[in-house]
Amino acid sequence: MASTQFSSPRSHAQQATMAVSGKPGSVKGGCSFGRAVNFSRKHHKGGLRVRNVATRLPETQVSPETQVSPEKGGGNERKLAAWTSIRQERWEGELAVQGEIPLWLNGTYLRNGPGLWHIGDYNFRHLFDGYATLVRLHFQDGRLIAGHRQIQSEAYKAAIKNKKLCYREFSEVPKTDNFLSYVGELASLFSGASLTDNANTGVVRLGDGRVVCLTETIKGSIIIDPDTLETMGKFEYSDTLGGLIHSAHPIVTESEFWTLLPDLVKPGYIVVRMEPGSNERKVIGRVNCRGGPAPGWIHSFPVTEHYVVVPEMSLRYCAQNLLRAEPTPLYKFEWHPLSKAFMHVMCKASGKIVASVEVPLYVTFHFINAYEEKDEDGRVTGIVADCCEHNADTTILDKLRLQNLRSFSGEDVLPDARVGRFTIPLDGSPYGKLEAALNPDEHGRGMDMCSINPAYLGKTYRYAYACGAQRPCNFPNTLTKLDLVEKKAKNWFDEGAVPSEPLFVARPGATEEDDGVVISMVSDKNGEGYALLLDGRTFEEIARGKFPYGLPYGLHGCWVPKK
Ligand SMILES: CC1=C(/C=C/C(C)=C/C=C/C(C)=C/C=C/C=C(C)/C=C/C=O)C(C)(C)CCC1
Ligand SMILES: [Fe+2]
């Protein structure tokens, strides 16, 4: 058992060297540290809370493999760790907490994301290429215990073993030695063998309690233990649906699991459902694409109580780009504005399509929520679906190249985004609407990485939490609470810091939509990382817990309540 703290400012390159050499600052020899405990208890409106005046930090574990990326460009000062590889084969430790963690908050927040962007001295290009990294925050009786671990996908293990990229990632393709192996490569691409299983995008808790990390490849569905972050094995689908890719964000509740399988051969989407406790997806229906040579990219989609909404955007998969060795500006995709854009609505019970409307062009990766609109007689007249919309501009994909993220010069380069609100009539009209749900200036014209109170999934709702922007910036840098009724936003900001997706956790017994806390993890400008708790209602800081090292950026999280 060992721990480390980087006590004096050092460049990432220096830190990396030390990790390898075992000299001071190296994690190899590490040391444990502890401070006196002094829990002062006091009564609060919401019940008894613990104030951590000084917290005993039990011995932390730092894996001997802990390594910081050798990417170039760092000065001598410590700087933002968000875009830096932090390899932790297994780290655990209690975090010193400033402020008060509500005593009702008992459970585990898990965050997944691509936190390791190099193999040896080869640096990956794109944010989405990195190897899956789990960070865990376990809240118990006012204390906060953290963990950090790499997911042991085949792609990751092969890269570590062979010291080179072995599977196709978002923008990276393994080098082929000669023509014959290229032919073999093509075959393995069509069979899916060369595609990655690097489950670096999200993490969900299924209704039956299993916790699964996901990406866009079906084979990249990996079960993990939420207590130890250990990789348990592949989530094997027991049906015969086949296919290689699916939506990275299934809709998951205690009783439902929905996902979409894009069909690249006969352009369309298969809508499937899986019961808790089962590994068998059942086909509920199919949507045929109305435009373009291939289906639009489906990273996520929304549902209402009775319907599945299937977006068809003009940013479409591209078979040729899937085959290419070098990335194109749109990676595996192509922009087909002439193919138009559509929203389809399928009845969950019958699999019938009840609406298929043309909408203005859009670019979205994350839907926020959707709900049904009813007339006075309770008949559903339309669907409203909200998303983080990039003003029909695909350049955000290029902005997420690591080189761009690592080279912020103070220029305002983050493209504008908004809360895009689709209105889809169910009366057979051919067109739907898309407009901003609130003035984008409310959130600095940055908008992505969203969550809601899960009790409001598919229902009329008022609040959403997301990352917005305080400009100038090159990446969303605020945490934002959106009030979609008052059309206002509250923004939290720490200059120079990058916060990850805010996740809302409701207070048990809450009756108000925003009664709960918002959890995020922040990489700050000093190279440090901290877990942050905001009050869901006031959006003010309640507590933070500092990590003894800087945190890489992470994408999506989930909440696992106490057993
Ligand atoms: C698309 C294919 C693949 C991989 C896809 C992956 C890993 C996609 C990941 C997408 C993510 C994480 C999207 C997040 C978007 C966040 C945004 C826009 C934030 C904006 C902030 O302003 C392969 C599996 C590699 C191959 C098949 C095709
Ligand atoms: Fe996502």
From TrEMBL:
The organism's place on the tree of life at top rank: Eukaryota
Cofactor(s) listed in the protein's UniProt record: Fe(2+)
Binding site for Fe cation: 249, 299, 366, 556
Keyword list, A-Z: Dioxygenase, Iron, Metal-binding, Oxidoreductase
Segments of skewed composition (Polar residues): 1-18, 58-69
Cofactor binding comment, as recorded: Binds 1 Fe(2+) ion per subunit.
Keyword Electron transport listed: no
InterPro entries xrefs: Carotenoid_Oase (IPR004294)
Region (Disordered): 1-27, 56-78
One annotated GO biological process: carotene catabolic process
Designated name of the protein: Carotenoid cleavage dioxygenase 8
Species the sequence originates in: Vitis cinerea var. helleri x Vitis rupestris
